[in-house]
Specification:
Number of strands of chain A: 2
Order of helices and strands of chain B: EHEEHEHEHHHEHEHEEHEHEEHEH
Order of helices and strands of chain A: HHEEHHHHHHHHHH
Strand content of chain B: 25-35%
Strand order of the largest sheet of chain B: 5-6-7-3-8-9
Number of domains of chain A: 1
CATH topology of the largest domain in chain B: Rossmann fold
CATH class of the largest domain in chain B: Alpha Beta
Radius of gyration of chain B: 25 Å
Strand order of the largest sheet of chain A: 1-2
Helix content of chain A: over 70%
Oligomer: heterodimer
Largest sheet of chain B: 6 strands, mixed
Structural class of chain B: alpha/beta
Shape of chain B: globular
Strand content of chain A: under 5%
CATH architecture of the largest domain in chain B: 3-Layer(aba) Sandwich
Number of helices of chain A: 12
Number of strands of chain B: 13
Chain lengths: 270, 330
Amino acid sequence: MSPRLFLHVFTIQSRKLMSYRADFWVSSVFAFLTELAIMYFLWRAIFAESGMDRIGGFSFEALILYYVAAILLGKLIRGNDRDVTVSTDIYEGSLTRYLLYPSSYFKFKYAEHVGTMIPSAIQLVIFGVLYLSLSGAPADVHVTPATVGMTVISVAVSNLLHFALLYPIQLVAFWADNVWSLNVMFRFACMMLGGLLLPLSMFPEWARPVLNVLPFRYLFDVPAMTLLGRHSVAEWMTGVAASLLWIAALGIATRLIWNRGTKSYTGVGI
Amino acid sequence: MIEVAKLSKSFFVHRKDPGFWGSVRSLVSREKVEKAAVNAVEFNVGEGEIVGLVGANGAGKTTLVKMLAGIVHPTSGDATVLGFRPWERDNRFRRQIALIMGQKAQLWWDLPAEDCFLLLREIYQIPESQFRASLDYLSGVLDVRDQLNIQIRRLSLGERMKMELMASLLHTPRVVFLDEPTIGLDLTAQRAIRDFILDYRVEHRPAMILTSHYMEDIERLCERILIMREGEIVYDGALRDVVERYARTKIVTAHLRKTGENVCADEQLAELGDVLECNEHLVRIKVPRTGVADAAATVLGRFPVADLSIEDEDVGSIVERIMQSKERMP
């Protein structure tokens, strides 16, 4: 796929999403504030009840800032995952047109996926700056130009990793008519094991080795902790390298699934 | 340009009993049934040729077209299009073909047509000057210049089909598969699409395969047809030969002078053949081909004929008979 085509698909997708004004503002303001409010009141109650100053290495203020970062970066990394329509394309036969094009379907869909990041990036800037200017950074959080730079790279890699994980799941539609339940399980696994519901440092000791070998922690936990200055450069580099290894492995698996799947594709009807 | 050798495709489909318990049972076990959609078909199509592919629903036409366009893998056999195996989906192959499906929108619904075309320009890497020339030619011939900036989903069916045609031909493909391109269109739009296809053929000389349930499409556009029945090609030859080889009857039509005579009461009329129409002005009889000369002579001798014509059986009826017949056509 040529860079010009990638850019073209990317801009069409972002233009399309931003043309739905109501959806843009509802998803930015309402969804973000609701998620944050739940975490705020839940953790305030936990901190008050336990009487502790720090839980899992986080002060209350640092924890809320972690959630702000994880939710906003998470939107950027996941893009609009409901718009990854690979399974629908297979089920409804729309894949046919992409099979005719002299272009990679995977790259086409990834360009669309990246296009959904633009509205999320706008939301990240608005709410991130707004939150930091209203509350200020807590003492145990160190956002610096270096952590921001490392986070930008982390987000780009995590975005590709998220897509590389989601794509083969959607390809199951070649054999199963409905992959909705798999999508729901995948979303839940990402949120739980990726650090969107809970910082991974709060998981019990025995669970950490398991979390370290799974790809999910590189999705949200690593970028958020990097931004907040809680990961060293070495930890960050390990995270990026592990993500790239996972992307390569998933890429091979995806190619095998795609080759088998397209052999059984009928394009709806015979 | 298209060479097909013993190409076959079978599908496995799940059979489910109807009703609630059928659905419950299918959670545990489902019956898998093999269905042969295309069975060892063989034919070639040359440059500038438009070949009509006709057959009843489920005869395997669309599956055959999908295999030749590289969408569906065959179960066995071989085919090459422009020297490529379609299902290997080489980009050099995909740059030179187009598939237009009348029943399946292929453009992006939320985008205006021109945005879709710009995206296709990038996909097919069409040079700017060639793109502008093609866009200008196609939008002019199809008369849709004023609709280029309207979202696809807001266009009428006819306009949308014209846009689909444009989108598929912008890269000037050398092989074009047209799967029911006029389905659902009104007569004016059907005629416009047919005229356009003929113009396009003269201009670019592509190999085309056309499937359609409208015999008028086939008669107007194709000199050669393939008739498919239950996955097999039962006739491959010139359209006019279908009439010569398989027409069993002819229609004798006599326009009568006004004499007041009741010709319809004549007993010999029914002996000539099937009387399709009879009144004081006109008699139409379907007669066996072997007896057409006698029938014409009898009509001329017995009735006050002002004008007489002898026509072949309607080609659509012949093709339909071949499609439904159980025997293999010679």
